[in-house]
Amino acid sequence: MTTARHETETSRDLQVEVNGVAVACPTGSRMLDAVRLAGFDVPTLCYDERVGPQGSCRTCMVEVEVNGRTETVASCTAFAEQGARVATHSSEIKEYRRTLLELLLSETASPANCPKCNSFGTCEFHQTAEEYGARLDRFPPIPQRTPAKDPNPFIQRDYDYCIACYRCTNVCNEWEQADAITVQGRGQESNIFSFFNNNLLDSPCTFCGQCINTCPTGALTNRKTVGKIQADKIERTKTICPYCGVGCGINLLSQDGELMGAEPDFDSPSRGSLCVKGQFASWEFVKSEERLKYPLIKENGAFRRASWDEALDRVAAQFKDAMASHGPDSVVCWASARVVTEASYLMQKFARVAIGTNNIDNCSRT
Amino acid sequence: MVGKGAMSNSIEELANTDFLFVAGSNTTEAHPVIALRMKRAVRNGATLVVVDPRKIELTRWANRHLQIRLGTDIPLYNAMARVMIEEELYDRDYVENRTEGFQQFARHVEMYTPEYASDICGISPEDIVRTAREFGAAAPKASICYTVGVTEHSCGSHNVQALANLGMMAGLFGRPNAGVNPLRGQNNVQGASDAGAIPTDLPGYQKIESPGVREKFERAWGAKLPKRRGITKITAMDQMLRGKVRAVYVMGENTVVSDPHANHAKKALEAADFLVVQDIFMTDTARLADVVLPAASFAESEGTFANSERRVQRVRPAVPPPGEAQPDVDILLQLFRRMGKPQNSRTAEDAWDEMRRLSPIHAGITYKRLDQEGGLQWPCPNEEHPGSMYLHGDDMESGMPGFFAPVDHIPPAEQPDEQYPLALTTGRRRSTYHTGTQTGRAAGFDLLVPHEFLEINPADASELSIRNGEKVRVTSRRGEVEVHANVTEKSPRGTVFMSFAFPDSTLTNALTSDAYDFITETPEFKACAVRVERIPNIQHAANGKTPSAD
Ligand code: SF4
Ligand code: SF4
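Above: the input entities. Below: the structure tokens describing the complete assembly.
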């Protein structure tokens, strides 16, 4: 058996020029990759890199000149071509984008009440609309999609903000592969529907929350957080989910020193994916009233509050006592898979140096 | 070869492999975001073979589900090896140049004909041969993944060795999109082991019993170190009962609930003269303590976690801890002082820097780099090193051999019998976590899994006249619990399943076996014998996901 298998196919590079900047991109790249490689960006309202191009929102259109021909293509679907010259922000393109955005605004509820903007600072759609100076009244409003009446405690569905980009159904069906939501109907009549009766709790939904986080508007939001947090007060702390060994990146959301929620960290290796625990269970336990707040010492079978000084002195005295009367190996220390590595490091050093025993273990066995 | 207990390759690589062999891992429930890469691999055309006694969710994506009898992994893997040898479907080059012990191993698996293995594990000889061929053909672009379904058996380390043998035959080490990958359960179980919180190893898997290693640490720490390896948790608990272990320091672990044979763990901790527990909640273990120290949670602490793929990532405080609670690092530093051993470290970063100077695999990982570059995967020997996507990329060349070790089938220590006719296996569910101290406090999670369930096959249920949703009593030689029955095809005949996330109402680990792997001392959570019976004359509400009324 030979092992000579090709690992990568980046042998041939394509030369592309974007707004005058030359870039070399791997064969098979899309125009969008070339644009981003060159340091530019275009709106991509229906695109989620985890599931590939959908090609429906058309906001990523760019002008491409190749072999003397000029055409307008959706950069998320069109492949990069050798020698292509790309213009991402010509006045025609910008005007085209603005019109698309104005049409979408006319089909959706007022940006002033957008749940995502109000609670989380921005939403991709309204931010883009603002960037392109899209006017609210350019087109007469047309009927909006009806919000789903779905009482689940996790996901709020305000489909009057839905722009029918289908990122949510794509991420659900292609990435999470839960097949919990689908598009029903056509065109402006289309709606996002979940089996069987539009209640997510009765559907195969795993509550991974990935639809929320890919949704570029306020149509899908975290019900636990939305409306309770104010965009101008929100603080984000980049950290790691406290549950399993995948170690997905999360941002903890806090307001006035209080934890309010979590969202995925799209810059981490988990690429914005989370499961139900990271998405919906990673902060409430921290705020629990049942948290231990003071050192406790047991006396006559009951705990009483103690000062740190007293508690630590007691611990040290007891360890010294055991060491003196029964030797250092009569003490054992157990570190934990739940605490930071630095604490485990200090714990094993404590056992070995302060006590003098190798009786150190953690729960990796269990 | 698999001694470091970490994934040889990376999570992302799983999406690019051609053949996925997933053994004893309920990945969609226990590691949902790793499962995304597996599902992606299948979309990309990879073949997925799932080995599990239960019809777990991942089997929906599998090309083949090898539904083995509980605890019969080794005959299956050995028979696959035999087929690959017989049909020359192994990586000769790799085996000759990078491994030892192959000849003896080949002779050993000779007896594991597919028919012989089939009799033990219940998989048809045809499926064994087919799987071996597909695996051999796809290798080395093949990946083996496993978790506690493989390790939490009394023969757990042998199961792991049997998978490593397959991995070596197929040349899966030191190559991209390949590897033998244990998926670690808890968020920082990797980091705890990496940091040397194990009885045999100093930080970075350096052996305490090696004089050179010890000297290095003695010099750095300015202290004489004990020469002999320490005792594991399991041994320690026995020694508590025998009066040899007197004082116990537990940080961040709910031993009483999470350990097998919970009654035994409780008795042991009660027998100790002194118990100090440092945690964020008053757990059942903390309740037994003489002193309880309130700790900061992950959201209130500086530090790092290491994930399953050896990636060290920064943990940052978002809010201050409640009351007088303090980060674990701070508490430990104060205790050092009170023991007369003050430390130079003041912060988590100081402790990390001290560790990386002593642990070559961590040497190049600094907080500054982590802040700028995101996570870094060890081995990362210097600050210019980008970190390692997969293990053994270079040290293969430096001649580190993999050893083939022949292993044989050892049945679970406790077999079903007349009195306890069903096999109980335990595991995780996606929306509950471990002992439930955290998910149990998240609003809405009671709608997803309201309480513990006993998953039982319809045929077994009807024999016992048990209806779906009804409360039943489960009894083992060590204890009994009451639990709602969930009649489902997920469980094969003769095997029932429970998690351990609802210890207050259903203490699953009161049932589990006190047998453990004789090498790693991993408890046999995955198999014990139980009896299930109806609780007479009580009417019970139906279970299930009940949508809330609002
Ligand atoms: S939460 Fe996850 S499973 Fe549920 S609808 Fe959204 S993407 Fe699909
Ligand atoms: S979000 Fe889910 S998969 Fe990711 S680390 Fe947390 S528990 Fe694990």
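Note for the figure: Residues A 241, 243-244, 246-248, 274-275, 277-278; B 31-33 surround iron/sulfur cluster (ligand 2) (CB under 6 Å).
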